[in-house]
Amino acid sequence: MDAPWVEKYRPNRLDQLRRGTSVDIIRAWARKWEGGVPEKRGLLIYGPPGTGKTSAAIALANEMGWDYIEFNASDIRSRSSINDTALRGSLYSTISEFSGRKKLIVLDEVDSLYERNIDGGDMGGKSAISNLLDKTMNPVILIANNIYDLKSGTTGKSIAEKCEQVEFQRYRSIQILNILKEICKNENIFCSHEKLSQIAENSNGDMRAAINDLQGYGDFTAPQERDITQNIYNIISSIIYRKDTFINLRNDIINLGEDPNNFILYLLENIYSFNSNVEDYVKALETIARADLFLGRVGRRMNYSLWGYATDLMASTVFFNLKGEKYLKFGFPSLIKKMSQLKKFRAVREDFAYRTGRYTHKSTAFMNKETLSFIYQIMNRNKEIRDNLERILGLDFDEISSLYL
């Protein structure tokens, strides 16, 4: 049986969550643990179901090279059970055996705890979590759907105050739509733009529900039935040879079902060949550059409404006289070709950074940015160190030497 797509496509990097500044807050909290035990030992992530809270915790553990241990607060509701599991594990390297790495303790559904109930099942549960945040020697993440339920009592308010806090709001429909398209592409299936849009709208901002609905839909066709590349070339041809109106072209780009970040590369690659009319050519490039600015802001701010401005600008290049003196065949974007060729090298570098990061207790991102080139040079110059690192980390230096760091 195929693995559930919600697990198969669960993000393993924080950036894949598309959470903008929330990711910055999470990373900033995690970096404080590299210098010792911070003032606020806990991180509280709250928001509706399906917004990526648990995925954020897992992705953070991956990035930092931490062990990941998760407890569900609804299963360990009393003071004694929390002390016997989460607290005991947080005071030592790991619950079972020594790994030399920090351990990320995750308590899910903490808003389901109350100060006490009629059966006494929640007796002291919140107090135990508060005690955990005071004593832990390892990072702790608390996950809640409703922060107001967590803060319903004095102890709950104290828990929240002891944590850095980050809110995960519901995903926008366009964000969910984009993820669903990526899944279809990876699964080599075709689902109509209209159906994907319907799934995204009906999910009410719940990414997990949308992915489950997509997998359960099942009415897929082969991707060959729809040649997106040919449709892209048809739109670009209409722009260059001014075969259609701005409104129609704008709608065609929207209904294309292709990421605007890819379409702009097609547009730039092929307009570049038609540069006989210098003045209009320069204006067209300036317009495309403005569209690229909006696309960049989408990536930084996760505000997908800005896609509309980028689409308008790209469609508006139809107003410029870009037709060349002779017919030229349209071409595939050279940047995408080069990125595809470099995919193997990026994977080798990422693996190199991950393995050395685990050994030095640093994040993969830190190793990639700050340290990798130095280790690479040392391995090149000192065979003994190289042999030891290959043996300890399981590296293949023949692959690593191709990186030219």
> What is the N-to-C succession of helices and strands?
HHEHEHEHEHHEHHHHHHHHHHHHH
Strand order of the largest sheet: 2-3-4-1-5
Question: How does the helix and strand content classify structurally?
Answer: alpha/beta
User: Distance N terminus to C terminus?
Assistant: 42 Å
Overview of this protein structure:
- The protein is α/β, with parallel strands linked by helices and 405 residues long.
- 56% of the residues lie in helices and 7% in strands.
- The chain is built from 20 helices and 5 strands.
- A 5-stranded parallel beta sheet has the order 2-3-4-1-5, with helices on both faces.
- Helix 17 (343-360) packs across helix 18 (364-381).
- It is globular, with a radius of gyration of 26 Å.
- Mean pLDDT is 79; it is low at 93-98 and 117-122.
Brief account:
By secondary structure, the protein is of the alpha/beta class. The chain has helices at residues 5-8, 21-32, 53-64, 79-90, 125-135, 147-150, 154-161, 173-187, 193-202, 207-217, 228-240, 246-255, 260-271, 278-301, 307-315, 334-341, 343-360, 364-381, 383-393, 397-400, and strands at 42-46, 67-72, 103-108, 140-144, 163-167. The protein has a 5-stranded parallel β-sheet, with helices on both faces.
Helix and strand topology:
Blueprint (H helix, E strand, L loop, with lengths): L4 H4 L12 H12 L9 E5 L6 H12 L2 E6 L6 H12 L12 E6 L16 H11 L4 E5 L2 H4 L3 H8 L1 E5 L5 H15 L5 H10 L4 H11 L10 H13 L5 H10 L4 H12 L6 H24 L5 H9 L18 H8 L1 H18 L3 H18 L1 H11 L3 H4 L5
Parallel strand pairs: 1-4, 1-5, 2-3, 3-4
Helix pairs in contact: 4-5, 5-7, 8-9, 9-10, 11-13, 12-15, 13-14, 14-15, 17-18, 18-19
